[in-house]
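Quick review question:
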């Protein structure tokens, strides 16, 4: 079965950094889309960034310049580097993937990793 395993969350003070990882296993094919979502307490889940297997990517304006999404195709792993963290970045971060192509119709999800930023 296709599986996504996340790691790298934690608690930091404002201005700190974290690096989230998401390793995929159990899929075949070389064309896919992976993304990161987050959900803050009491708020809806929002997409933070997405990256295709050709490394084209998108990222939301509120984290642009602070967060970086990247992909290691050989290791089937995507990363989200979180810098200059703010308290409003607090939430559960989820990895998602669409292994059927590059349309980012996410149908596979990780278990989530908690990011807590204190002021």
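Suggested answer, residue by residue:
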């Amino acid at each position: 079965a296709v599986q996504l395993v996340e790691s790298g969350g934690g608690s930091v003070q404002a201005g700190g950094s974290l690096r989230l990882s998401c390793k995929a296993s159990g899929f075949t094919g070389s064309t896919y889309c992976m993304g990161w979502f987050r959900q803050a307490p009491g708020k809806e889940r929002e997409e933070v960034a997405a990256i295709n297997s050709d490394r084209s990517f998108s990222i939301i304006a509120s984290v642009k310049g602070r967060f970086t999404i990247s992909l290691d195709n050989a290791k089937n792993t995507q990363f989200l580097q979180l810098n200059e963290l703010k308290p409003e970045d607090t939430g559960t971060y989820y990895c998602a993937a669409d292994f059927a192509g590059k349309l980012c119709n996410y149908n596979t999800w990780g278990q989530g990793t908690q990011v807590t930023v204190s002021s």
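Why it works: The chain has a mean pLDDT of 95. The longest strand covers residues 18-25.
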